[in-house]
Amino acid sequence: HLTEQDRLVVRRLFVDLVLETDPATNFDYTRRNATLHQAVACTQWASVQGAAPCFQDDMEGRHVAHTRYTLLALIIKLADLSNPFRQGPQSAAEVYAECIMREFYKQGDVEKIYDHCVRLANHQDRRHYPSNICTCQIAFIVNLAQPLLSMHSRTLLAMGASPGHAVRGDPSGPCVESCPFLESIQSNLEANMAHWTAVRERYEMEGPPSQKAEAHTPRHDKAAEPETEPDTEGETEEEGEAEIDPQTSTDIYYSDTEAEADGLSPEEVLFELSSSV
């Protein structure tokens, strides 16, 4: 049982670690702790009554508590950003990436409903699919996932914390071969990177799916409606967005013209979006 003071300390630690998962802190964390492996390498380790290794303050009075917290923050960040570490394409990694883009697109739909003059970010504009999902995933891997994994690898190797494996080579280098677990994660990351790069290149060669797909129709059945002659003033009904391949996550594509076509109010559209998440 914890004393009241210890309980408050542990609670504060948990709160701080959860806040570390805020994406706004990722780049600053990577910049501030680029030399974390060096601080760990200079710290003495000990085992307390057979428990997990813990830091011991050395003769120079290093900030061991801060280093310990930084390591915990690194671990929870990796867990929070672990989707690209999953095994290869056509797996949970790709499915989860699609779910994230669905959330972005729905947010963009809502923003366009309430402010027709808003300029959406590319990752919120479904008209850029699949280019934007490839761009998002590649940028996520290059700028966040890979740097954090490299930091974690160097830190573990500097600590000598890989069970049954000795530290090899320069701890500052990207040496993951001494730990099969890290090697497996790195391999998965590279496979996902290659997959999204190939998808983007194929998209750039073949062009947007809208150039090959048939015209998009609203959710009500237009096929049942009788054909009408064009009006005498030469005006034609504005067509919606082109439909994307229905074989790939059809529910991602929600045209910004569907609300108007179905006569839905903004509140009803919000309900539609929230109920389909």
UniProtKB/TrEMBL annotation:
Species name: Kipferlia bialata
Protein name per Swiss-Prot or TrEMBL: PDEase domain-containing protein
Domain of life (superkingdom): Eukaryota
Renumbered residue ranges of the record's region Disordered: 204-277
Keywords attached to this entry: Hydrolase, Metal-binding
Classification via SUPFAM superfamilies: HD-domain/PDEase-like
MF annotations from Gene Ontology: 3',5'-cyclic-nucleotide phosphodiesterase activity; metal ion binding
Annotated ranges, domain PDEase: 1-203
Keyword Hydrolase carried by entry: yes
Any Pfam family hit: PDEase_I
Compositionally skewed regions (Basic and acidic residues) per UniProt: 213-225
Annotated GO biological process: signal transduction
Lineage of the species this protein comes from: Eukaryota, Metamonada, Carpediemonas-like organisms, Kipferlia
InterPro entries per UniProt: PDEase_catalytic_dom (IPR002073), PDEase_catalytic_dom_sf (IPR036971)
Compositionally biased intervals (Acidic residues): 226-244
Transmembrane segments annotated in the record for this chain: none
PROSITE patterns in the cross-refs: PDEASE_I_2
